[in-house]
Write a structure and sequence with these properties.
4-stranded mixed β-sheet; about 350 residues; Deoxyribonuclease I, Chain A
Amino acid sequence: VTHCNALFSPITLVNIYAPATASSRAQFYSQLLTFPLFHPETWALDTFPITVSIQPPLTSIEEPSTIEVDRESLIILGDFNYHTTSYAIDNTNYTTDSFSPPIQTDQPQQPAAILAQQRWHDLLSNHLIECTHSKHDGPLLPTFRRGTSRSTIDYVYCSPTLFQQLHSSSIDFMCSQWTDHAILTTTFQFSSSRQGTGLWRANPQLAKNEYFLTEIHQVLDQFFQEPGNSPQTQWDALKDVVKTTARRIGRRHSSWRNRQLKRLQRKRNQLFKRYQNHPTVLRDRLPTIEKLIGDLQQDISIQQTIRAGKLWREQGETSAGYLKRTIATRQIQRTMLSLQHPDTQSSCDTAETMQ
C-alpha cells in the first residue's frame, strides 16, 4: 500500500480469510506458515526488509512475483475464524522455541496441523500488536453475528512501529443488509506539510434540508435589501454569502450525523459488555439500535457517493472501493509537490525551500 502523496513509506497489507471448519482452518494455518514471510526463521532475522516470492494463486497473475516486505510497516488483518483468548498462552511455560506452543509431555501429541494454528497465533502475539481489541476493557466485542449467535473472529495486527502512529480504533456494527461482520476501523495519523485544503463544493443534498432552505431564504432576503454595486461585485458577494451559509449548516448536519452514529455504536457496545450473559435482553434491545445505525450508515454512504462525484452501479449496489479511489484521486490535486522560485526559476520540492 502506497500513499498517493507519499505521506508514508509503503505498507505491506496481508488479508487473512481462514476457513470456518476446524480441520480446514488448521490445515490453512499449517500451509500459511510455510510461506517465507511467516516462517519462524524469517522473523528471527535481524535484517529487514526481505524479498518474498508470492506464488499463484495468491496473486491475480499466473507468473510468480516478488515483493519487498518491511516488518516495521506490516499489517495483518482479516477473518481469522477463531477467538484469540482460546490461545492465550503463558510464554513462561514454553518448553521449545518462542514460536511453538507449550508441549504437555503427559498428554498425547497433538496433530501438527492443530499446533500450526497455535504457532500462527504465537507468531502474531510475539511480534505484532492487535489494534482494535487491545484498548478495550472487559470481554472482547463480537465481530460476527449469525442469528442470535455472536463471536469475535476478526482482528487487525500491526507492527510496533506502526502502532506508535495509531490514532484511534473502533469496532462498529454494520448495516445488516450489507454484511454479517462488524467493521474494524484503525486510523493511523501521519503528518504532511504539502496537503492543501482543496476545492470546496456545496453538498446538493442540502437542497432537501428544510432548515437550510429556511436559512438561505432569510440570508438572501437580507442580502438583496442592501444597496447593489457592480454586477460582478454583487455576484461575487452573493456566492460568498451562499458558501458561508452552506458550509455552516452542512458542517453542523454532518457533525450531528457522526455524533449520533458514535453514540449508537457506543450504546450497542455497552449493551454487550453489560448483558453478555443475558441473551434475552440483547434480543429485545439490539434490533432497534442496529436499525438506527443502519439508517445512518445509508445516509453516510450517500454523502460519500456525492463526494466522489460519480456513481457505479451493479444490481443497485455502490462500490465503496471505487468511491474511495475516486476521492483519493481528487486529493492528489490538493497536494503541492513542488513550486517554482519566482527569481531563480528553480524547482523547490522540500518543505523548507517551498516556504
